[in-house]
Design a protein that fits this description.
By secondary structure, this protein is an alpha+beta fold. It contains eleven helices and ten strands. The protein has helices spanning 10-26, 41-56, 75-87, 95-107, 110-122, 235-240, 256-275, 287-316, 321-349, 366-373, 383-394; strands spanning 127-130, 146-150, 153-160, 171-177, 188-194, 200-206, 212-224, 228-229, 277-278, 281-282. A hairpin with a 5-residue loop joins β6 and β7 (212-224). The longest helix has 30 residues, at 287-316.
Length: 399
Amino acid sequence: MVDLCPDDTPELKAWRQEVRDFLEKALPEPWTFWYDYDEDPASWERYLDFWRQVGKKRWTALTWPTEYYGLGRPAIEKWILEEEFVNHDVPTYPVIGMHVAGYLLRHGTHEQRCKHLKGIADATVLWGEGYSEPGAGSDLARLTTKAHRDGDEWVINGQKTLGTAAHFCQWMSVLARTDPDGPRHAGISCFLVPLDAPGIEMLPLDNMADGRQNMTYFDDVRVPADSLLGDENQAWTQIWFGMGGERLDNAGPSLGPHAMRILPLLNRVIRYCRQTTRGGRRLGDDPVVRQQLGELMVGVEALKLQAYELYGIAQSGKASRFGEASMHMHQAVYKEFWPHLAQVCMEIVGPMAQIQGGKWAQLNGDIEHYFRASFGNHAGGTSQLKRMVLATRGLGLPR
């Protein structure tokens, strides 16, 4: 098993114990909740209450500068924090807000950071993503939503789709074309848009895993000129690829929501196999099941190694084509491994894995829910797109 063993000093060991003590009080029992695949109001209230407790400790912004509501702590402490959150099966923070925070810390003005970062750090303001469109999903450069300058305002017109949990959000990060005559990958800008602005309409787009995404329409939506994030016409490189700017957050790539879903679920299936008898013997003693679990564990270890590699590249401070290629390789592997893992777990648990409740439900029906959720692995681009980027940007191969 891969183990980075980051807590190699008394101070780091004490930090890990502090995180564990907090989790034992704030979330006594591990709890599976996926903000993008659950619409239950009570679950959302509990979920946000937990993250607001984290926010009060400023752990959401652990490595941000103190000037912008952070604690300025070292990157390794964030890694340990996330390790413990993963091990405790903590529901992941709404990822779009953390992405927006990263954009603000790299490319935002001082005024924008002061206005928006505290709400993200406290989990009191949630953000949706206005990137994909009906004709521009993985090929984001095809987007047609437009924005033009009108005096001291920008006017936005267009349509966005796949706005995950956007109906729970107060703000949205929106990409729009501001130079219609330029190349496809140029002329795109990013705007910070309040979702209560006149001219915005949001319609539900239910997904197959009990969650809701959204279609969001912008009809002459006006936002102030200072709603532009980063440089005009530079969102493709600055926002989509996170290039340029000043690196104010010293943390590198995190374990993130991928590990927060895969690792706890696999561990639950392993415990299930140890405790369940089928055909007169323990399920974990079945050679076929042991082979399946072994294959999944190898896949998880490969993902962990890739996460360690990305962390090391980020901490070295040496941005390179290799580093970018490693990121896309990690995403491609995860996007293909996730549905495979869900399928194998369904096979191991068997037909009763499909039962959602009652005495016959196995693992509370979470395996079947996880299986349906695994087909949402297109977020941020499909694995095919990631393979293409890996080949062209990483290996220098022609299109």
